[in-house]
Amino acid sequence: GQGAFTEDTRSEFEGLYQGEIEFGDVDNDGDQDVVIMGKRSIPSRFNTAGTIAMLYLNDGTGLFTLSEHQPFPSGVDGPIVFRDADGDGDQDILNRGRLLLNDGAGKFRSSRASDHRWGGPHQFLDADKDGDLDIVINGGDRTSAKILINNQIPGHFAIVENAPFPKLSFATIAISDVNEDQHPDVLLTGLGGYGYAQKTHGETGKPTTMLYINNGNGGYQEKPGLPFEQVFKGATTFADVNGDQRPDLLLTGVTADSETPVAKLYLNSGGGAFAELPNPNLSGIVGGAATFLDIDADGDQDLVLEGADKWGSGAQQVRRVYSNDGSGRFSLIANPSTFLGKEAGKGVFGDVTGDGKEDFLRIGKNPKLFRNDGGGNFSDLQSATFQDLGEIKSAAFADVDGDGDQDALISIHSGTEPEEGTAKLYLNDGQGAFTEVAETPFAGISAQRLEFGDYNGDGDTDLVIFGSRKVPGPNDYAEKTSVYSFPHGPKFSSFIRLYFNDGNGSFTEDGGTPLISMPESAAAFTDLDNDGDTDILQVGRTPNNLGGLTDRRAILYLNNTIKP
């Protein structure tokens, strides 16, 4: 207290050259922790080793120990700054374009603060007086000073770099809490790696099936030693098929040994342990969809499989309906109700009449909406007008106007090219009669996939569209993603778009979404980092401007919705 200092030798800090020190309370225990930066050897023109950074935690008495959760395993580039960047009450770290968000306990994850790295001094301040911290950068990239505004936009997605998931093509994704710890786990199938000659399209790789367990903090680790068949280009889903309240797994797809697809059923015995159920009496499909629902109202999960009956030339599209005996053993319904039709193709289930039973919209060239009576019987719902639309490419049901019933978004084919089309929004009167909404932002969009969900945390139903749009000019590449064309025909732009709902069924496109177009991809929408909002995992291949597809990718988008 008199200006006399005594060395405290209890802490074991590593000595570094050209060191810098930054203090901050990273674990919210009321004391100051420290990051020490520097080089392990004397810098010279012959030694250009990078700067390392080590985080030490304070026990409150001035004793520091090396944290087991190091935020900079690959070193740092320049100084760091501690600030609460996301307004959650803990200290985050900024390091030249790398924004690391703190979970409150001293564990950090990467968030994209900008699209590039920048040098020069940088600091935080509330530049736009909106109550959050923005970033000021002065120089470093041979430009003038700039300000990066933090808008804290609900529903804004950030790409997570170095996500642990494999890069696959012909992929499927299934999400479920397989070990019953209240956190979503991820199962992936697809074609990955090398060593297996794909039968068409010049693809190389090998079939892959992998399960990743959520550690509770949004991190994932592969679970080895599982009995799963290695497949690709299938339909994969979880459902409780034997009534024990645990998610079992259905795998379909192509193996390395045969063009004939397999269908495998694995029962979950608890804790994420699976065992194959012999002879479930199911036939595999290529691509398509697998839908579990109680068709015959007997309290168990029946199954509809839709897809191709083989891989390669000569494949036929099929739709098969199976009844479950309650134990996970299925029997094929030889003459299912007329809702299936003779023309196989995909369909969409949803309770459009509000009676608690799943009705069925048959899509394709002969669309029709069928009402479920709860006994496995489906009848033509005459009040719906979807049969007059022509060919339906995709459809989805959701309550977009908040009146408690299931509305419909329908993508139909129009024009002469396969990719031409438009999407229409229909509001339900609660009895299955639909009225088209005249003004929507979906005109001219050909949608391959429609995903409804609350992406900005405001309680209503937003929308993600995977689709394409005809490009108006011969050299108009205005879309953010790839442009491709048919020989001697028009150009089309493939994209993913996010639309926010005002709560009354009026949608506005979010122009700032970083979602990347992947036409041949699988995607899953769920809370992957356990923060209460909907994230996106996408696995597949991205297109290029020459009409081809680039390398396989696995992209994790974390939703930055700020909860009130």
Describe the structure.
The structure is a single chain. The protein has strands at residues 17-24, 33-39, 52-58, 64-66, 81-83, 92-95, 98-102, 108-112, 122-125, 134-137, 146-148, 157-160, 169-176, 185-197, 204-214, 220-222, 236-239, 248-253, 262-270, 273-276, 286-293, 302-308, 317-324, 330-332, 347-350, 359-362, 368-372, 378-380, 392-398, 407-413, 421-428, 434-436, 445-453, 462-470, 483-485, 491-501, 507-509, 520-526, 535-543, 549-559. The chain has a domain at 17-152. The model is unreliable at 44-48, 112-123, 125-129, 136-153, 195-202 and 473-490 (pLDDT under 50). Strand 23 and strand 24 (330-332) form a beta hairpin. The protein has 564 residues and is mainly beta. The chain starts with 16 loop residues before the first strand and ends in a 5-residue tail after the last strand. The protein is 0% helix and 43% strand. The strands form ten sheets. Strands 33, 34, 35, 36 and 37 form a five-stranded antiparallel sheet that branches. Strands 1-2-3-4 form a four-stranded antiparallel sheet, with no helix packed on it. The protein is built from no helices and 40 strands.
